[in-house]
Amino acid sequence: KTRLPGYCVFYDECGRNPLLNNTLIDPIVPCLNYTRAKLVTGDHYKILKQVCPMFDQGESSTYACCTIKQLGSLEKSLTLSKAVLVRCPSCAYNFAHLHCINTCSPNQSQTVKVTRVMNVTEQNRTREAVLGYQAFIGKTFADTSFQSCKNVRIPATIGGYAIATMCGRYGSKLCTPQRWYDFQGDSSNGLAPLDIDFKIIQEGDTTGLPEGVIPYNGVALMCNETTPTGGDVCSCQDCQESCPSVLPPSPVAGPFTLLGTNGYLVISIILLILLILSFVLYLSVSWWVASQKNKKKGIHRGKGKDKDSDKVTEKIIHPSEVTCAETNSLAAQAYLSSQFRIWGTIMASYPLTVLLLSLIVVAVLSVGLKDIKLTTDPVELWSAPNSRARQEKEFHDTYFDPFYRTNQVILTAPGRKSHIYDSLLFGPQNFSGIMSKELIIELLELQTRIQFWSDDLNRTASLKDVCFAPLNPNNPSLTDCAVNSLPQYFQNTFIKKNCNQHHITDLGMSCMADYGAPVFPFLAVGGYEGKRLLEPLAEAFILTFSLNNYARSDPKFKVAMQWEKEFLKIVQEYQKDPKNSFTFAYMAERSLEDEINRTTAEDIPIFMISYAVIFVYIAVALGEHSSWKRLLVDSKFLVGLGGILVVACSVLASMGFYSWIGIPSSLVILQVVPFLVLAVGADNIFIFVLEYQRDVRRPHETREEQIGRVLGNVAPSMLLCSLSESVCFFLGALSTMPAVKSFALYAALAVLMDFALQMTAFVALLSLDARRQDNNRCELLCCIKVSKQRPKKPNKGFLMPFMKKYYAPVLLHRYTRIIIVVFIFMFCGALFLMMNVKVGLDQELAMPQDSYMLTYFQYLNKYFEVGVPVYFVTKKGFNFTSVEGMNAVCSSVGCDQFSLTQKIQYATNYPERSYVAIPANSWVDDFIDWLNPQSKCCRLYTNGPNVGHFCPANESGLICAKRCLARPDNDTVRPTVAQFNRYLPDFLTNRPDLQCSKGFVFGLGAYDKAVVRDESGEIIASRFMAYHTPLTNSQEFTAALKMARELADKITQGMRLVPGTSPDFEVFPYTITYVFYEQYLTIVNEGLFNISLCLLPTFVVCCLLLGLDLRSGLLNLLTIVMIVVDTVGVMTLWSIDYNAVALINLVTAVGISVEFVSHMTRSFALSTKPTRVERAIEATAKMGSAVFAGVAMTNLPGIIVLAFAKAQLIQIFFFRLNLVITLLGMAHGLIFLPVVLSYFGTYIIFLWVLYV
Questions:
Q1: 525: left (phi over 0), alpha (psi -120 to 50) or beta
Q2: PROSITE patterns under this entry (predicted)?
């Protein structure tokens, strides 16, 4: 028939399409009827104006090719689709425009060609119905309509696009105008009542056009245009053209540069040059001053011998040369020595009584161990209770449920060949080997195997007893459990329906999980690199079980732990099965704690061996070994054992005391404190015992008096080190980090207790051993005496003579002392390296090297397309019920361009800076859309007993004919305060339903726990969920936290400008990782503060105990600072990250450095040799040998054993770092410090006493 303007090709309704079943709406098809368009008047006109306003020419001039019934069916169909598009009025208008043209256009015959008809009988009347037609559309209209809709979002789908639900398997990224229209015309989509073949025709192209057809090319609206019905422009989130000009974030600050190169390197080089020049200048000036002084005054010297019978040159001193500081220094030493001499004599005189009293004190304190609490929770260890992250976590967990427990399997099939699948839509596709039916079925079987007997429930338990079930939390079935996997796209019905890849779009499968939520691609498959869901290159299946995070006191917590144990057991058995087709990684919520506990238990023998090696060394090294006949007499096995027991008792007493007062311990304390106290204690033991062995009893002096005199000589040095370390650690307890604070407290008291027991119990033990040795009795076999008498000469051993004769003279020769330049170079180099040390602790390092968690972390970083979810949480004080309040939060039409959700959207435009990958969902946006009268989501009962109450979308329209809100003139829906408060509870409890097009993301399950209201109905907490980008290391996690907080602060500032907002209102970001990584935002400053506090007492105590000797104190401090700086520099070279564990070791390094340095400094200061070089040689020979034997050689064997530990944390932070600390401490204490003292050490004059 001739295609003329004003003619229809179909008109009126003929009944249901006989070819379609199980559709979302009745598939009513039109009757074939070539007739003139009808004039519409009255109600017909009003409905047409409402549904298809673009045809309105006035009531007397409007023609259409549709009846009232057709308009009703069209409106019903449009309602379901427009509900997801209504956020953008111009998009919804264009969408309606297209279908109105096909259904009601008065020129229908010119744009539509019928392709299929069939006789349909309805109410005993048979008519010819249209079951398919071609619709011809101009390309400009088609493209403009598509562009207006392609960016419209569905907030609850976490950044998802509405177009993704309307373009079939192409999704949003591969959707085109043609594919969009093809899906709309596909009768299998549940909405189209018949098949429509859309033909998009380029303007001017008539190729293949039927005669008389004129492609429709009306005016389509851009998304930033208002609609003829008064609709506002679309928001920025739904329309890029509506976005304001937003400045991109400032570029990342580049590395610090000077002169075009690394600034820290330049500064280090300049500092190196200045220090070397200063040193050379000092030497030159000193030489010139000394030569001039010698010429003028001459040098008067006498000859003599020291107490070791060594010839020395004695400098004749005038009283005026004795300074006040020197007088004070020696006076202080004399006083301390006399007091310790008296104390030592008393302790040695009553050894058994002293040992008994010491044992009682230790026992009383150690009883507190019965109440010891071992902190294993990482949150309690590394996050301060009053820290921002902890407070935010407490707020979140108080008002919302704690983050659910995650149990996950990531499966790949690398050995399977890819295969070609000839897709009707995509054509031949090369699918990866993992995309196969049998593997998907195998995955489904794996997720249904876990059942076990629960003693707590007294019955067989399964997933449903502990799972997170968002839609049915009180009495969930297995299908209510939140299990995310690829089979959930088919509601886990692969086995029952025996589906295959050719039928994945069967209408019965809604691409929602059987527990009622949408399945997001990034939670179901991995490695598809952001492309469409079933991307042929997807490399991994992801299976995630979400369990409720019960409190530890809840009986179901044990059930959840047991379920996870069975989960791990089954997965591990499955992994070992040679028949399985997967290569996979897995984890349970309990895995981290399990693996840490496992490796701790496995490494206990390593620590025991380490202590055993140290004990054997001490026992052997303390012996005199003057003759093999006296080997059992002169050995110090029991003394060494006693020294170890003194260390153990001091640690036990410290732990017991703090357990009494309720300060918990940790594994870090158990591992580090004994090592620290052993280093301090062994050093003091060696100094004391070696001094006693080198001493000769004076005439008429008793053994007890000799022990007291020897103690008087060395105890001030022991006091200097112990007091410095103890005060250092007590000040370290000012740290805000719980693990560092508790470690510092335990270490401080343990060092004090160690010193106290050395001054009491160990003195008594040495007295008993000396009595045995004097009587020539064998050790362990005390009844046996030997005839060989003890030599009269003091036993200097091997080390002291070697250092005195060879090492010290060579080190302090005028030419070799230039080695100080090497240490200056090391210090400057370490300063440069220190600026490049990595801050953080990657979670992989907490795992042993054979842990399955390491494979899981690798898979996680490789296959996951997004990172952890991040919530933007609002606190009390914001009025969500006002129009201004809603506009300040939402992102749909009419919302502020810088609202909460819009600012998050802007952040996702720069994911590499913001670390936000996907925009936040928004209950405010979806609540507004749910209320929109253009959808059927919010209706009221008009019949029955519930008249006036909320009516779910699955109820018939006959009894629910009234919308909750009237349609606004400008299509911008905003409820009044009363309407907001009335319908919000209905929205939050509305069970998802496909009858409400966006119902599957509304209400219950999606938002019921996202909004918290008090008794008055005020919203006191709410949250908006987005997703971070994939975060792979500590630096990225820390940066993500920092950027999220900056974003939240900007949101807070904007929302506080809304009238009625409380001035203390706040928005903060929260995710489960923030509480662990917050420490890295401040750990550098925290470390500088703690280490500075530790350095302070080393200077102050040294000055005080040396009689206000500032120079010795400064040299002491300088050397310790260099050790710490060099240690951090080596950390950079040896890939040791700076974190809380490293900080604890650096604090320990200060304590150990005190042992290497302070004894030497004091020995030099009190030496009576006339020149600095001679005094440095004496201090190096006497005290250096004891320090080397007591600290370096005590630590090194035990540290080396730790290299065999399985735990990477122990290998890195206990073996590597402690080895570095010990070697650098030894180098600085035995090489650098003697040389520095030989240049800059203080003078304490030998013969000044003669003049006093």
A1: beta
A2: SSD
